[in-house]
Design brief:
The chain is mainly β. The chain has one domain (28-263): Jelly Rolls (Sandwich), CATH 2.60.120. It has one helix spanning 53-56, and strands at 20-21, 29-30, 34-38, 42-48, 59-64, 77-82, 85-93, 95-100, 105-108, 113-117, 122-129, 137-144, 155-159, 166-168, 174-179, 181-182, 185-186, 197-202, 213-214, 217-220, 223-224, 241-242, 245-248, 262-263. It starts with 19 loop residues before the first strand and ends with a strand.
């Protein structure tokens, strides 16, 4: 796959953004993830999707396909089309083999991120495979493209785990910066049309995390339960993780059909 950075032209960049603000924001709503079946029979949990598009604009969907049971995910996601959106896939355990109509073929390994811009259209398949213990952990976020960029050329950014910086704060909070900026540390994904921030945060008990955001950002803190472990595993349960994702609402004049976390 092409791993070279792709520069946006001036017309592709997001419009001027407001400065970050420090005033606390109230949580507008709370949603619980719901079971769903996608692809060829993959059992997953959907944090948000169909009914919540107006609330979460420009985000369309967030799926959690973590499982220690291979029967839940091995059927995978055979060839299917995407158009007018971006899909962001983050793998934490196991791997996903990817193949598409542009001739790209590769694997998304633990800690890696694939940022795919479908643009004018692409057909691809994603086939998960667990680790030696049968554990698969992964998440996929969908983001809408602005109406003016829906027909842009498809492209990929493949980010390896070693290239994702981690910020460690004095209170023990650990922040992996996939995209955006925390404490002066910038993530490796740049020149994204919707100008998002995407973080993987682990917090010890009773810790506090604050993040300045712009007043027009859509902010999604996603609370994840303890990771599933196989029956043979004796490893301790890791701390709860949070996934704040933020981006400016794109106000697309040609939105996708409505699809289902806290929104603030």
């Amino acid at each position: 796959m092409n791993k070279e950075p792709v520069e946006l032209t001036e017309g592709e960049r997001s419009p001027g953004r407001e400065k970050k603000v420090s005033e606390p924001r109230e949580v507008k709503t709370l949603l619980a993830a719901k079971p769903a079946v996608e692809g060829a029979g993959v059992h997953l949990k959907r944090a948000f999707g169909f009914q919540e598009v107006p609330l979460f604009d420009p985000f369309l969907m967030l799926d959690d396909f973590r499982s220690a049971n291979p029967a839940d995910y091995l059927q995978g996601f055979p060839s299917h089309p995407h158009r007018g959106i971006e899909t962001i896939t983050y793998v934490m355990a196991g791997e996903i083999e990817h193949l598409d109509s542009l001739g790209n073929h590769g694997r998304i390994l633990p800690g890696d991120v694939q940022w795919m811009t479908a643009g004018s259209g692409i057909v691809h398949q994603e086939m998960p495979r667990g680790d030696d213990e049968g554990l698969m952990e992964g998440f996929q976020l969908w983001a809408n493209l602005p109406a003016t960029r829906k027909m842009m050329a498809p492209r990929y950014r493949d980010i390896q785990a070693m290239d994702i910086p981690e910020v460690v704060r004095d209170n023990g909070t650990r922040i992996k910066v996939l995209c955006g900026e925390v404490d002066g540390v910038h993530g490796p994904v740049h020149d994204v049309v919707i100008d998002p921030g995407y973080l993987d945060i682990s917090m010890p008990a009773h810790a506090e995390f604050k993040l300045p955001v712009r007043s027009d950002d859509t902010v999604l803190p996603i609370s994840l339960p303890a990771r599933p472990v196989s029956a043979r595993s004796t490893e301790p349960v890791p701390p709860m993780a949070w996934w704040p994702c933020s981006a400016t609402a794109n106000k697309s004049s040609s939105p996708l059909p409505a699809w289902p976390a806290a929104s603030c």
